[in-house]
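U., I forgot to send this yesterday:
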Amino acid sequence: MKNLFGFHAITSRLRQRPESVKEIYIDAERADNRAKDLREVAKRLNIRVIPVDSKRLDGMAGGSRHQGVVAQAEELKMPQFIEDVLEGLEEPPLLLVLDGVQDPHNLGACLRVADGAGAHAVIAPKDRSVGLTDSAIKVASGAAESVPYIVVTNLARALRELKDRDIWLVGADDSATETIYKARLDGALALVLGAEGEGLRRLTKETCDSLVSIPMLGSVASLNVSVASGVCLYEARRRRLAGK
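Result:
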């Protein structure tokens, strides 16, 4: 069993796998519409809602922001290896690779974007990455339970294995002369983005098949990694929907 906290994460689980939610604990003082709606959904699904004080919720959430609601739910089994993700796909794989993202809010936002764009998995190295913390799961708003998060020991080796599977690797780099809008994004594709401020590591860059940039037309020099992930993933998805 694990604790889910925050309205987005809990309502997403109720929508996807309601049978996995055992109990919902809610701040006894919350009487707003959001809390009322959650109570009504839980009642309809025959899930017990227990009013508790905020201190108990603080303990259950481990100090993270819980918005006054925590649910006890079964852990969902997600694929742990990229082979499990690729097997049986009905379209060419669309993957997001994160090289050293260490902020849980950025990781959660990347997972949410990946879910929205229909990416089949997010891949990250074991070292120099934040991992799937409770905060990242909360920010992901349910996407951590719909998009496989694959942790690899050696990112460069994992990228080479993707290439062996004929998956085209496109890395995002501010100095690249080709833009994402003109890059090859057809077929099996992995978009590779680097850490905040540092970008892609040298070996990661060298392993990519091509490097692209996102045009920056204003005064700022770069985008947050989750925003950049959204730009790249949705451009790839747009091409697929347009048949280009």
